[in-house]
Each structure stands twice: as C-alpha cells, then as structure tokens.
Amino acid sequence: MSITVILCTYNRSATLKNALNSVAASVVPQSVRWEVLVVDNNSTDKTREVVQSFCTKYPGKFKYLLEQQQGVSYARNAGIRESSSDVIAFMDDDVTVDPQWLWNLTKSLHGGEWSGVGGRILPLWECSPPEWLPIESPHMSGPFVAFDRGSEAIPLDESPFGANMAFRREVFERHGGFRTDLGRSADNLMSNEDTEFGRRLLAAGRRLRYEPSAVMRHPVAENRLTKKYLLAWWFGKGRADVMETGALEKENAWTVGGVPLFLLRRITGWTLRWILAIHSKRRFTCKLNVWNLAGQIAGYCHVAPSAKDSNHHTVTIGGTMKSG
Q1: What is the dihedral of CA 6, 217, 20, 165, to 10 degrees?
Q2: Rounded Cα–Cα distance for residues 69 and 51 (Å)
Q3: Does the domain made of 2-223 have the CATH classification 3.40.50.620?
Q4: What is the pLDDT of residues 21-70, one digit of tens each?
C-alpha cells in the first residue's frame, strides 16, 4: 500500500513549517510507502524555501510541485495527477496532526469496503472569542474548520472536510477530481469543492467513513474572529451553494431578475429579525443568515439556468475526462 499526502498552500510559509513538522513525525507501518506532496499555488512568500528544506532533510519523503492556475481545486487536482499512490490524503497548511493521524486516517482504505474517510478536526483557539460570537452555532463549524462527529467510527452520510480526508485513488479515476469553479482561490472565500466531491461519491453509492482517531487540530486565528471575515465566508458559501447545483431548490418558482422570489422573501424576513434582535449573539446570527442569502442571490445572478448540466467544471484525472 502507498499513500500520498497532498498539502496545498498559498502564502502561509509561517504556518507551513509547523504543519510539515507534524506530518514528518507520522508513525506508519514499514510495509506502507508514504510521501508528502506540497502543491504551491503561486505563493510569493518563502513557501518554496520551506518545502525544499524538508525535501533536503527527508529525501524522497517530501516533494514540491508548483501549480500556477490559482485555486485550491486546481492545486488538489494537480497533486492527484502527480501522485501514483493507492491512497490520497489531504491536509491543510496551518494544521497540526498527531503522529498516528495518517495511518488512522487511511488504514480502513486497505480493502474495498470504504472509498473514502474523514477524520476529526478540533479547533485550536489562539485567543478568547468575542462576546458577540455564537461559537456553539452550526454557523461556526465551516469558517473555523471544525469537524467532530463523536468518538465512535461510523459511516458518513455527509461529506468530510477537505482539511482532513482521504480516498482510494481509483475513486478519482472513476468519478473525476474537484470542481474548479468551486473552492477558495487566493483571497476569494468560495467553498464547497470538498463537499461537492463527497456528495458526488455518496450519490454514486460510494461508502464514506468517519474516523475519530485521525485527529487534526486546526487553529482558529484571531483574524477569523471578526465580523468582516465571517460575513464574507457565509456570503461566499451562499454563492457556492447555488453554483454547486445550478439551483438550490424550487426550480420552477417565480423569479425576479432570475432570482427566486422565495429567496427575496427569506432575506427580507431575516433582515427584519436582524434589525429587531436585542442580544448580540442572536443579532449576529441573523446577520450571517442575511449575508448567506445575499450570496445565494448573487449566485443566481451569475449562474445560467443550464449551469448544472454544463461542462465548465469538467476535470481531468489520470488522462480521462470526468465531469462532476
């Protein structure tokens, strides 16, 4: 069995070194061949120097790849094409993984029962959250990259988070790679490239597993604890939800300028709740809903009616054209 860990990065050389140090300490059976492929997505900082220092320190274990097309989906797909391993795992450039993380994440993919697996992502708070922030809200798991479904391994009926997931290589060869019209690109906070891929596999009857022992810690940086960041994240999520499917729901609904009337009613309702809310946490939750709905409306303004049937998100893996 062979494993490639794909780590895509963009201008995070300061945190990248810690992430690479943690995965370098991985404890994996000697019979398993594993490597870390760092895909540099046009960084302008010292990313290349950091990666090359690990390539020198661990010959054959760490590799560097430059992907000039901006976007995390382009970077992930480039890493998949570059790798020839049986299993492909993914991690972020600002996380810390346990020494047992890689093997715990991938060992269930030995046989044919599971096509993919998602690990446990625990938030690592760098400072105390502000009083207005509803950290217990489901709104927070996405922007803070937290994925915790308990302490028991279970089948997944949802997509794992891209920061901590692994798949058998044949899954990409059969079902294609990550959609390039979705996902973060430089400072653009679009999302859904990982969740769309997981949903695609589940719809095809593939089995996904949650593995709680594959523990990863993701920092909640101070710059994410701002209203500006969270509002921008949920606006981007709204756009991505519409772009993912071409339409969220009620495709035959009445529209105004291409925007479903039910969305206009919803944003009006949540705006009133936002204005009338007294408590700061409730007020900000309502505002997040308004920004998310605004993102959905923006998505409808940019997505053609036939978007979900178009080939604009077709990707190439292993020389075969695959469409999402």
Answers
A1: -10
A2: 19
A3: no
A4: 999 999 999 999 999 999 999 999 999 999 999 999 999 999 999 999 99
What are the start-end ranges of the E strands in the chain? 2-9, 33-40, 62-66, 87-91, 96-97, 116-125, 154-156, 164-168, 208-220, 255-256, 259-260, 315-317, 320-322
CA distances from 254 to 251, 259, 303 (A): 9, 8, 16
Q: Is 187 helix (H, G, I), strand (E, B) or coil?
A: coil
Q: What is the pTM of this model?
A: 0.88
DSSP classification of residue 303: S
SS3 content of the chain, % helix, strand, coil (to 5): 40, 20, 40
Residue 176 Ramachandran class (φ > 0 left, ψ -120 to 50 alpha, else beta): left
The count of C-alpha atoms lying within 13 angstroms of the C-alpha of 91, restricted to the half-sphere facing its C-beta, is: 33
- Whether the Cβ atoms of residue 214 and residue 117 lie closer than 8 Å to each other: yes
288 contacts 139 by C-beta, under 8 angstroms: yes
CA quadruple 2, 42, 54, 20: dihedral, nearest 10: -70
Report how many helices (DSSP H) and strands (DSSP E) the chain contains, helices first.
9, 13
For 193-203, letters b (16+ CB in 10 Å) and e give bbbbbbbbbbe
The domains of the chain are located at: 2-223, 227-308
The radius of gyration of the chain from alpha carbons, rounded to an integer in Å, stands at 20
Give the residue carrying structure tokens 């995070």: 12
Amino acid code (one letter) for 146:
A
Q: Which structure tokens are listed for 86? A: 């049986």
Tokens 């922007």 -> residue: 143
